[in-house]
Write a structure and sequence with these properties.
single chain; 73% helix
């Protein structure tokens, strides 16, 4: 591997690894499996030619590869042991990461079924527009909107049971 590819990979890792980890963790609910998924995504990144149109295309590609790897791990049954949520909250992906702020809400989001959780994490927590979420999850924009609506309704019901107002 030449130094330009290595520098490109280091830059991409520094820019995207924390976000990819959060996405992977929200899908797998396991620290070790999420780390494996991110590592595998960057291994694929190093193996490909790096012909991205721009930084957004590069980031979208990495998210898509990470989501696919998470699904592969789920299908293979590799995700067996869950890391308690408290471990994630004590050790955020970045020291300045406020992603875990509002622990009851995060707990409720992570308790949602995977199809709703993935859409909500990418759209509401990571800030992706519906079209980008649709591309990452290989769904239509209308399917993503429906998952967001139903996920929010489930989340609202779960939080109401715990008497948490957001």
């Amino acid at each position: 591997m030449d130094s330009s590819n290595l520098q490109r990979a280091e830059r991409a890792y520094d820019a995207y690894a924390p976000q990819l980890y959060r996405v992977a963790y929200s899908l797998l609910l396991s620290r070790e499996s999420a780390e494996d998924a991110v590592q595998d995504a960057f291994a694929r990144y190093l193996a490909q030619d790096g012909a991205f149109r721009d930084a957004e295309h590069e980031k979208a590609w990495l998210i898509r590869v990470t989501v696919n790897r998470c699904r592969d791990l789920q299908r293979a049954g590799a995700v067996r042991a869950y890391t308690p949520l408290e471990d994630l909250l004590q050790h955020p992906a970045r020291p300045d990461d406020d992603w875990a702020e509002g622990q009851p809400v995060l707990r409720a989001v992570l308790a949602l079924p995977e199809k709703y959780r993935a859409a909500l994490v990418l759209h509401s927590l990571e800030g992706y527009p519906v079209d980008a979420v649709a591309a990452a999850l290989r769904l239509t924009p209308s399917a993503v909107k429906m998952r967001l609506k139903r996920g929010r309704e489930l989340l609202q019901t779960m939080l109401a049971k715990e008497d948490i107002h957001v």
